[in-house]
TrEMBL record:
GO terms for molecular function: oxidoreductase activity. It comes from Peromyscus maniculatus bairdii. Residues 20-301 form the NADP-dependent oxidoreductase domain. Keywords: NADP, Oxidoreductase. Substrate binds at H118. It holds the Pfam family Aldo_ket_red. The keyword NADP applies. This is Estradiol 17 beta-dehydrogenase 5-like. CDD domains: AKR_AKR1C1-35 (cd19108). PROSITE patterns: ALDOKETO_REDUCTASE_1, ALDOKETO_REDUCTASE_2, ALDOKETO_REDUCTASE_3. The record marks K85 as: Lowers pKa of active site Tyr. Belongs to the aldo/keto reductase family.
Length: 324
């Protein structure tokens, strides 16, 4: 589908996903109430795709914003596209539905539009989001992702979610699911870190060949939460090439980074809790990058990943040891 001019893409299950989404993750130091304010601003500005997760621990606040905006007539439920994610401590098949039901309860919604597996590697179940042993190491466990997927298929059949997909999967992990005997539903999407320093061109090609939509997070670089991202990581929005192209189009480097993804056929998430930026991030449909601009941005790729999840590097389902 031509994302250059379209505001939505059709998923392989027939449902439509808006090509520009609003991300709701925030580092711990940001008060949870900010998520309500920012999500309301995003909806007022025009965002209809809201990307959230059980792990973000702010679905009550985001849900409040959605309900307020539906109550005041700004938006109807069917105009919103809400994504949540099954966290690593719920990957055992018998726990998948419980995670989704907890999200729905916090949100005050009957269903979500998309539910995805947050990461392919599982952690020890329990109330702790990051279960640790006595020495402070995160406790991982092995759950067959095909069993997790089957449990997610049942959630779709129960009407708790309209579409299902994955996040942070490499092509081999996608193939495990696609080649699973008795597969009922293909993943509709794979949400991964993707920006000009990590443009994921091989994974994008692979996903397109399987009719799976690639969704980009950290599309503007990263929020630099010290728990996940090294402090000496490069600032994407300070990149001279992006600044040059932005000046040429009378835009910001962030708008150029978002537009780049849309023109490649990638659904892109923009995360900001700053009102001016939220407005700016939505203004990406009324200009177009030239093929020269696109080539220059492609040339910035250095396979640089902000969030490496190195604690899971020895897990058999650690996704980033593969080239794509």
């Amino acid at each position: 589908m031509d994302l250059k001019h379209s505001r939505s893409v059709q998923l392989n299950d027939g449902n439509l996903m808006p090509v520009l989404g609003f991300g709701t993750f925030a580092p711990e130091e940001i008060p949870k109430s900010k998520a309500t304010e920012a999500t309301k601003v995003a909806i007022d500005v025009g965002f209809r795709h809201i990307d959230a997760a059980y792990f973000y621990q702010n679905e009550e606040e985001v849900g409040q914003a959605l309900r307020d905006k539906m109550a005041d007539g700004t938006v109807k439920r069917e105009e919103l596209f809400y994504t949540t994610k099954i966290w690593n401590t719920f990957l055992r098949p018998e726990l998948v539905r419980q995670c989704l039901e907890r999200s729905l309860k916090k949100l005050g919604l009957d269903y979500v539009d998309l539910c995805i597996v947050h990461f392919p590697f599982a952690m020890k179940p329990g109330e702790e989001l990051l279960p640790k042993d006595a020495s402070g190491k995160i406790i991982l466990e092995i759950v067959d992702i095909r069993d997790t997927w089957e449990a997610l298929e049942k959630c779709k059949d129960s009407g708790l979610t309209k579409s299902i997909g994955v996040s942070n999967f490499n092509h081999k992990q996608l193939e495990l699911i696609l080649n699973k005997p008795g597969l009922k539903y293909k993943p509709t999407c794979n949400q991964v870190e993707c920006h000009p320093y990590l443009n994921q061109s091989k994974l994008l090609e692979f996903c397109k060949s399987k009719d799976i939509v690639l969704v980009a997070y950290s599309a503007l670089g990263s929020h630099r939460d010290s728990n996940w991202v090294k402090s000496d990581s490069p600032y994407l929005l300070e990149e001279p090439v992006l600044k040059t192209i932005a000046r040429k189009h009378n835009r910001s480097p962030g708008q150029v980074a978002l537009r780049y993804q849309l023109q490649r056929g990638v659904v892109v998430l923009a995360k900001s809790f700053n009102e001016k930026r939220i407005k700016e991030n939505f203004q990406v449909f009324d200009f177009e990058l030239t093929s020269e601009d696109m080539k220059m941005i492609d040339g910035l790729n250095k396979n640089f990943r902000y969030a490496k999840m190195s604690f899971a590097v020895d897990h058999p389902y650690y996704p980033y040891s593969e080239e794509y």
